[in-house]
Amino acid sequence: MSKFSEIINQENPVLVDFFAEWCGPCKTMSPILKEVKDVLGDKISIIKIDVDKNQSLAAKYQVRGVPTFILYKAGKQVWKQSGAVQKNDLITIIKSFS
Q: SUPFAM superfamilies attached here (predicted)?
C-alpha cells in the first residue's frame, strides 16, 4: 500500500490502469497506453494494477469496472474514467494536468 502512495506522489502525472486479465477492453488498452507513453515519455508514469490480485486497492479507490483509469498529480486524484479511452483523448487529458 505505501509503495502505491509513493508512486502516485510523484511530481509528474501518474496514470493508474486498473485492469483484469480476462477483460477484453483492458487488452485493447495495452497498446494504446504504450503509444501514450511513447508520445509523452518522462512526462508521465503509467502503472497497471490487476484488480484480481489487488482487490483491497481496487476497493479503496472505488474501482467497480475495468478498465478504470485514475490520473494522479502530486498524490491527488485529478481525473477518473471507466472504460476504454482513445489515445488522443488520453494524451489531451494528461497534458492538461502536466
A: Thioredoxin-like
